[in-house]
Amino acid sequence: MLPMLEWRKQGERLWQLGGEWAGWLGGYGRHWLFITGSALQQTFGSDTGMVASSIGYYTLFSLFPLILLSVAIASLWVDPSVVESEIMNRLEFIVPGLQALLGQNIESIVNARAPITGIAVLILFWTASNIFTALTRAMDRVWGVELTWSRSAFRQRGLAMLMVLFLGIAVLLASLYGGTVVAIINSFYPEELRPYRPYTTELWTVAVSIGLFAMLYRFLPHRRLSWRDVLPGALIAGFTWSVVKDSFLSIIDLYLSRTNLVYGSVTTVIVFLTWTYVSSFIFLFGAHLNVAYVRQRKRSG
Predict the structure, then answer these.
(1) Sign of CA dihedral 31, 32, 35, 38
(2) Contacts by 80-89 with C-beta closer than 8 Å and gap 24+?
(3) pLDDT digit string (tens) for 174-205?
């Protein structure tokens, strides 16, 4: 009789514990549902399309000097033609249509190169930093930060140029050593996980995307933020961006030849701007998600 009573008590205790966990999960789910809904509402506001368009515009005019800057720095140690090819291949995976848009021009400049001067480097830095200036203004707008013109202008430009330096080095290292990193990761796979090696590159891409989004969300706004504040948006934006990118590449493979018949030589520009527009929406959604998350956390105590 006693064992039966003990089993009954244990069952009631487990049932109570399960109910508590279900209630907690339900509340947690509602909590994130509210945050996501608020972020979506803000993302698709009246001015988000205009902000996304401006980011795409500045991206178009910033990538060319950024690539030139990376090639110029790398040419001090490596054959520039090799670096140019590797960088374009890596960026083509991130920005569809980039090879067709800039490849021939970059190659012509590399072949006709002359020793780079300090003034040329500064001009390239200044031009390439326009994209990060636009992103900083977008982040300040999302967080509701207002600064005086003199302070914000100089700080934005200085931070933008630092981001150019970081991104240029990151692109350069990824182009030269990305395959080596993947090979090293694959070497640690146990025998039973060897069939999953082909997915390492995809996982590495998602991880890098999440890391880059987190850095942009944390350092671009003129507001003190912690990694905890920006992690939700970085996770969602990085994963979403990787999935949408693969879908976009598939669509390009299927319909690019048909689009060429309509738009001709400007097709690659349209593809590029479309992708940057979509990417900007994903970036802004992650930022709004972080804002909603921080506000909800403060309300919860």
Answers:
(1) negative
(2) 80/110, 80/113, 81/107, 81/110, 81/111, 83/172, 83/175, 83/176, 84/110, 86/175, 86/176, 87/171, 87/172, 87/175, 89/175
(3) 655 666 666 666 666 666 666 766 677 778 77
Question: How would residue 108 be classed by pLDDT, with cut points 50, 70 and 90?
Answer: low
- pTM, two decimals, is 0.77
Q: How far apart are CA 134 and CA 96, in angstroms?
A: 21
The residues spanned by each domain of the chain are 51-300
Distance (Å, whole) CA 44 – CA 40: 6
- Beta-carbon neighbour count of residue 176 at 10 Å? 17
Which tens digits make up the pLDDT trace of 152-166?
Answer: 566 667 777 777 777
Q: What tokens were used for 12?
A: 């009631």
Q: What is the mean pLDDT of the chain?
A: 73
Task: Render the chain in DSSP notation, one character per residue.
Answer: -HHHHHHHHHHHHHHHHHHHHHHHHHHHHHHHHHHHHHHHHHHTSTTHHHHHHHHHHHHHHHHHHHHHHHHHHHTTTS-HHHHHHHHHHHHHHHSTTHHHHHHHHHHHHHHT--PPPHHHHHHHHHHHTHHHHHHHHHHHHHHT----HHHHHHHHHHHHHHHHHHHHHHHHHHHHHHHHHHHHHHHT--GGGGGGGGGHHHHHHHHHHHHHHHHHHHHSSSS---HHHHHHHHHHHHHHHHHHHHHHHHHHHHHHHHHHHHHGGGHHHHHHHHHHHHHHHHHHHHHHHHHHHHHHHHHH-
pLDDT value of residue 24: 44
How many CB atoms neighbour CB 2 within 10 A?
Answer: 6
Residue in this structure with the two tokens 């999953």, named with its chain if needed:
196
Would you give the end-to-end CA distance of the chain in angstroms? 48
259 by Cβ neighbours in 10 Å (0-12 / 13-18 / 19+) ranks as middle
